[in-house]
Specification:
The structure is a single chain. The strands form two sheets. Strands 1, 2, 5 and 6 form a four-stranded antiparallel sheet that branches. A three-stranded mixed sheet has the order 3-4-7, covered by helices on one side. The chain starts with 6 loop residues before the first helix and ends with a helix. It has one domain. Helix 3 crosses helix 6. The protein is α+β, with helices and mostly antiparallel strands.
């Protein structure tokens, strides 16, 4: 006849079975149905949803470049000058397909979700052809040569380069980074809040930034305030 298991051994076997069941449940998603979804599983679902969007435009701006080019011949006796006013629109985008699972980390001790963002990509400039203005030309040199066409070509190259330089300056890039962080933090925070995780913090940062300051879904700097802050810093530098 089989000998019955003693009580301590039976309890130990039950405990091991429960642990194994929980591990299997977590890996298969069954645990979410029993205990509710975990912050990590919610974050993973948010990540997949964001990756499906592919690209996210987080900021847009219009810039205007005013450039002039001049040609001189015969020691400056004859010359031609052309001025170009070129407006262009620029988009600041996040390639969400570059977000991977290892870019999203959950710190259980501090209840913090950390997201490492891909760098902002500047798309454009998209030139507004209807708003382009060109001035100058005429004179002996323009009549005898193709100076106007050469100057226009030179102006267009310089204007496009100038628009890109304006678009990647410190202030617009700062505004684009801020908008991107807020958009991604909201995308991860909203599902967590809806699931009842009220104390979870979400930190989205770029590789060149620190990650110590947590951002909350209801703490965001308005666009107008960011502009005023940038103007104040420029004024402070001008007084030094």
């Amino acid at each position: 006849m089989d000998r019955p298991l003693n009580k301590p051994l039976a309890l130990a076997m039950v405990a091991v079975a429960l642990v194994l069941g929980i591990v299997i449940g977590i890996s298969s998603g069954i645990a979410d149905n029993i205990f509710g979804p975990s912050p990590k599983s919610i974050a993973n679902a948010s990540l997949q949803s964001m990756r499906a969007e592919n690209r996210l435009t987080v900021f847009a701006a219009r810039y205007v470049s005013v450039v002039s080019s001049e040609q001189q011949h015969l020691g400056g006796l004859v010359s031609a000058e052309r001025t170009l006013i070129l407006p262009g629109d620029v988009r600041y985008e996040l390639d969400l397909s570059k977000l991977h699972n290892d870019d999203v980390g959950w710190d259980k001790a501090t209840q913090t979700l950390k997201v490492k963002l891909p760098e902002i990509e500047v798309a454009g400039p998209d030139v507004d052809i209807d708003a382009v203005r060109e001035y100058g030309g005429g004179g002996v040199l323009s009549a005898l040569t193709n100076a106007d066409q050469q100057l226009d070509r030179s102006n267009r190259d310089k204007a496009v380069a100038d628009l890109r330089k304006q678009a990647t300056a410190a202030v617009p890039m700062q505004l684009a980074h801020q908008a991107a962080r807020q958009a991604v933090e909201r995308s991860f925070a909203m599902p967590l809040l809806a699931a009842g995780f009220k104390n979870v913090r979400v930190i989205a940062r770029f590789p060149t930034e620190g990650d110590n300051d947590a951002s909350y879904i209801d703490l965001s700097t308005p666009y107008e305030q960011a502009i005023q802050e940038a103007e104040r810093r420029r004024a402070d530098r001008g007084r030094k």
